[in-house]
Amino acid sequence: MTLQGDLVKNESLNKLNELEEMRERLEARKVVMANMSTRCKVATEDAKKQEEMLSTEVRSLLVAGTSLSVARKRLQEANRLLTEERGCVKLKNVQRKLRARQQYMISQVSLLYPVKILVGPAQEQELESYSSSSRLGNPSASKPVNQGSLTILGCFTNCILFTSSLALSSALGWFSLIY
């Protein structure tokens, strides 16, 4: 019986070893499956985030596309108006009105301040403040104004640097006496 007992023992040990190996493989597969499940969840969350981001970008592009379409239609309408028979006439009338408004505004400013208009590198035109035509309220009788940059004379004062405390205190007057 010992031989049979040894055989049964050996076979029992072999079966136990096989079972243990199967358990280890099963545990390894469980770990692999858990890792794959975790990766799948992370990938799903990333995909959802990316989908939300792309959805926002698509909405933004739709809004921009709509704005672009509206601007394109406006441009086409403006081009159509310009190519019409009286389109250039309307444009010239608007430009003339803008120039008249600019001249009126400059004459109003020249009532308050002396004004110098720089037209080009060598051309200058001055409007005296309180000229006779401006005092009468007739801006059209003032000097013609060309397009250029406008400088209000006497508005910008020189910067004074105080080199001593005496110069500073005399400039501040009584305020410096308090402190």
Beta-strand level of the residues, as a percent range?
5-15%
Element-level helix/strand string: HHEEHEHH
Number of helical runs?
5
Structural class by secondary-structure content: mainly alpha
Number of strands: 3
Compute the separation of the termini in Å.
Answer: 120 Å
How many domains? 2
Task: State the major sheet.
Answer: 3 strands, antiparallel
Report helical residue fraction.
55-70%
Can you tell me about this structure?
There is one protein chain. This protein is mainly alpha-helical and 179 residues long. The protein folds into 2 domains: 1-83; 87-152, no CATH class. Residues 122-146 have low confidence and may be disordered. The protein starts with a helix and ends with a helix. Strand 1 (115-118) and strand 2 (124-127) form a beta hairpin. The chain is built from 5 helices and 3 strands.
Fold blueprint:
Blueprint: H1 2-83, H2 87-112, E1 115-118, E2 124-127, H3 132-135, E3 149-152, H4 165-172, H5 174-178
Antiparallel strand pairs: 1-2, 1-3
Helix pairs in contact: 1-2
Describe this structure in a few short sentences:
This protein has 179 residues and is mainly alpha-helical.
Features:
179 residues, single chain, mainly alpha, SNARE binding, coiled coil
